[in-house]
Amino acid sequence: MNLLDELTSVLASEFEIDPALVTPDADLFEDLDVDSIDAIDILARLRELTGKELSADSLKSVRTVGDVLALVEAG
Amino acid sequence: MSESHPYIDSVQDVSRVTVQPQETGLRYAWRSAKVVWMFAWFGGACVALAIWAGVLRLAVRERSRRVRRLRADLSAVSARWVRFAINMGGMSMPVNRAEPSAPEPGRGCLVIANHPTIMDVILLWAELPNVCCVMKADLERMPLLRPLMGPLDYLSNSDPEALLAEAIDRLEHGETLLVFPEATRSLLGKPLTFRLGAAEMALRSRADTLPIVIHHDGSYLNKGQSWFDFPRGRVDFGLTVGPRRSIDELELPLDSPRQARRLLTRRWQDHCQSTLDKASTALRNLETSA
Fold first, then answer.
1. Across all residues in chain B, what is the average pLDDT?
2. What residues in B contact A35, CB-CB < 8 Å?
3. Pair B229, B85: CB distance under 8 Å
4. How distant is the Cα of A34 from the closest Cα of chain B, in angstroms?
C-alpha cells in the first residue's frame, strides 16, 4: 500500500472523509473540511503509521494532501 | 440621563451607571495619573506575590497545596484590585451571575471567555478562586508574570498538541481551566471568531463548561492600543457569568466528535456575541437618550 492509499483509508475510516475526494491536489481545509483538531489527530496517526518524528510546527505550511505526503517523505 | 447599567440591563440590574462626558485638560491629566496608579498597584502586587511564592515554596511541602494557595491569593489580590479600581472611579464592573448550579464534586470545569483587553484576566482571577490559565508563549517573557507562571502551575500554548493533551489531563483531574477560544484579543467592533481547541478539551475530558462574557466599552486597552493611551473617562467593564453546564446538559452529538466540537464552538461564539450585541444596543440607546 502506498502512502496516498494509506492516508486515504485513515481519512475515510477515522475522519469521515469521502475517499473519492482525497487526491494530491485536494486542499485539506477547503475541500476535505479538515479542521485544526483533525490536523493534530491526523499527524498523530501518521506518526504511528510511519514511525517518523513529525512536529506539529511542520503542519503550519501544509495545505494539500500532496503537502502531507511530502512532509512524511521528508520526515 | 438614564441610571441603569447597559451591560446588565438585558438580564438584571445590578449597578447604577451614567453616561459620562469625555475628559480633557486637567481632568484628563488626573485620569491618567489614576490609571498609572492602578497599574502600579497591580504591578507591585505581582512582585509581592512572586516573593510570596518563594516563601510558600519553603513553607509548604506538597506542591498541589502550594499551587492552590497561591492561586487563591492571586484571586484575592485581584478582587481587591478590582474594588480599588472601582472605588477610585477608574472603572465599573458589575457582575451578573447566573443561578449557581451544584456541580458534581471533583468534576473539572472549562471556563471560556471572550477577550477584549489585557485586563480581562485580572477580572477573571477575581471571579475564580482556583483557576489554571493558558499563557501565550510570548507573554511568558513578561518580567512581571514570568516568575509566577511556574508556581501557579499554568499551561503554555507554545505546542498546541501538548497543550490539548495537558489541558484534558488537568480537567480530568478536576481542575478549573480558563481558555480564551479566540486565542488572542478580540478586534474592537469585529465579530468574534472562536477556535475549536477549547470545545475539544471540554468534550474529551467531559468537564463542565462555564461561559463568561466580558463586556468592555472599548475606551481603553483595545488590541493594538498602548497602555499609556489613557482613557477619557471611567472604563466600563462588566461580566455575565454562566450558567455552568455539564456536557450531558448541552445535548451535543457526542457520537460524532467533529460535529460536536464545531457545534459547541459555534454555540459559545453565538452566546458571547449575542450577549455583547444586546449590551451594546442598550448602551447606544442610553447614549442617544442622554
1. 88
2. 196, 258, 261-262
3. no
4. 9
Strand B235-241 to B208-216 pairing? antiparallel
Q: What is the pLDDT of residues B159-210, one digit of tens each?
A: 888 999 999 999 999 999 999 999 889 988 889 999 999 999 999 999 999 9
Residues of B near A (Cβ–Cβ under 8 Å) read 159-161, 164, 195-197, 200, 256, 258, 261-262
What mean pLDDT is predicted for residues A19-46? 90
pLDDT of A16 reads 84
For chain A, how long is the longest CA-to-CA vector?
28
Nearest CA in chain A to B165: A40
CA quadruple B190, A36, B183, B53: dihedral, nearest 10: 170
Grid cell digits, residue B102: 451544584
Q: What is the dihedral of CA B123, B185, B98, B90, to 10 degrees?
A: 40
Q: In chain B, which residue's Cα lies nearest the Cα of A33?
A: B258
B62 is written with which cell numbers? 506538597
Pairing mode of beta strands B235-241, B109-113: unpaired
Which among A15, A35, A40 has CB closest to B160?
Answer: A40
Please provide residue B212's backbone torsions phi and psi, each rounded to the nearest 5 degrees: -125, 125
Give pLDDT, residue A71. 86
* pLDDT, chain A, mean: 87
- B176 neighbors B208 (Cβ within 8 angstroms): no
Model pLDDT, residue B245 = 93
Query: pTM above the 0.80 mark?
Result: yes
Q: Does residue A44 sit at the B interface (CB-CB below 8 Å)?
A: yes
Cβ–Cβ gap B258/A38 under 8 Å: yes
The minimal CB distance from B159 to the residues A38, A44, A56 is found for A56
Does the model's ipTM exceed the 0.85 cut? Answer: no
